[in-house]
Amino acid sequence: MTTIDEDWTFHRMTSQGFFRLDIPEELNMGRICTDWWVEHGGRGNDVAIYHGDEKITYRELKELTDAFASGAYRVGLKKGERYVIRTPNCPEYMVAFLGGQKIGAVPVPVNPMLREHELVHIINNSESVAAVCTADLVENIENIRPRCPTLQHIIVIGEAQKDCISYTELMKSAKGAPPHVATHKDDPAFYLYTSGTTAGPKGVVHAHRFIIGAGDPIGKFTMGLERGDICGGPTALTWMYALGHNFLFSLRWGTSVAMWTDARFDPERAFEFVQKYKLTLFVGTPTIYRHMLAVRDAEKRFDLSSLKYCLSSGEPLLAETVREWSRRFGVRTIDSMGQTEAHEFCTSQTQIGLKIGSMGKPLPGIEVAIVDDNGKVLAPGEIGHLAIRGDHPGLCLEYFKMPEITKEVSLPHDWYNTKDLASSDEDGYFWYCSRSDDIMTSRGYRISPAEVETALQTHKAVLESGVAGAMTPEGEKVKAWVVLHQGFEPTRELAEELKNHVKNTIAPYTHPQENEFITELPKTSSGKILRRELRRMEREKHGIPEPVKTKVITTGEP
């Protein structure tokens, strides 16, 4: 792991030449993650992917992605065209992602749990011409095909149905290397859809430069990747955090990925996963770590001695979790702050003066500040917009076909507004306060309160509802405050019915973990729901104070 002396901040290291991003004009994410290690890096026989009891070397991964690229090109997929990938974690997901990129096409990974109307929105908004999915998920794609005018091809992993293309046959029929399609560092490389506050999911467009702009500082300074490392965790590759750490960045650095393929998370299986593959880096979330800590005598039953670090993101990591994990397993947990639009930009991976509870410090090459509405940098201790300098090559290009929203996140003096509120301290550490646009982060997912409110209000019993992230000692949860129509009684059975209603209406992970029935919602004079007041009510109800800064601890103190 790279050691960073406290006297040399990341930004000073960058400015004085200790770390520099070198991004060529012609750049292709798919080729740099596969071909480079075979043709130049001398790692063709190194394992790229572990899955089940199987292994895929870098040479084999190059051949597989070449085959997909050739097959997709022959089918008619062209440079710049989008194609949806809807699969669980599997090697074919990686092959389709990188293989399409090799011919300049643009993958759009989507969560397999999305409902049909959500898929329609994403396919139509992205104007995707093809979809890659597993056989168990093809029915939804077939059902919505008439509502998706741009969708021409469905490539099925497994038994293909009528009017679909067999993934196996596509791969077998590929002859020779795919054509060389030149891509520029600023060309779109992939889209990820993230929750919007009012409209449907927003298409976040990332360029090929992302693999170096984000992958190099994260791979070097947060992950400390070196040959022989094996990275993995029980997180979905459709989520930016896992897409980077458990896939792209590991391959960018020529290391190995162990693929979690279980449909559901089980904490004991997570321990077995680390032990089986002898992971050196485990990628989790605060929720995952809390569930694993609840496994009795896990430190005696499982061997975690291969681990160098455990990584965490997605929601605030509580100090108690960090200390308990370190005490029981002797492994340090590295927390980081990021988002779909920029991936990770702050990390707690500094060797001296760690402040548990903070977001840490900015990564090399990334200028981060707390600014006001006019882009003026605020003094330490003042709460303002958490902003990233607009020239960061890991930043997204835009929200696809949403120029107004793209403009909204631009602040004067070339700052990108993360829509998070935070503060900094005299030592350069950043401290999270809240989302400024009410998006919730629960169980690692970003969830739109407006989307959950809309789903709730399609139930016959619901007059209106307000949804907000409620902080608990275990982290943030999705909570709904519900006003009922006359004639309906607020019962435990109805609360459970509303949870299931949301699960069946939109993605299951968005459902409220708690429903509270009230007679009136707090609102502004114009009738808008005051979600910040709902959050305040919840904190007051449970006696939870506002977040406070924790003390500085030195290396070695748990």
Description:
Among the domains are: 28-183, Rossmann fold (3-Layer(aba) Sandwich); 447-542, ANL, C-terminal domain (GMP Synthetase, Chain A, domain 3, 2-Layer Sandwich), CATH 3.30.300.30. Helix content is 30%, strand content 24%. The protein is α/β, with parallel strands linked by helices and 558 residues long. Helix 4 crosses helix 5 and helix 12 crosses helix 13. The strands form six sheets. A nine-stranded mixed beta sheet has the order 2-1-11-10-12-13-14-15-16, sandwiched between helices. It has 19 helices and 27 strands.
Radius of gyration: 23 Å
Please identify the structural class as seen in this structure: alpha/beta
CATH architecture of the domain at 28-183: 3-Layer(aba) Sandwich
Sequence of strands across the biggest β-sheet: 2-1-11-10-12-13-14-15-16
Beta-strand percentage range: 15-25%
List low-confidence stretches. 1-17, 547-558
Top-tier CATH class of the domain at 28-183: Alpha Beta
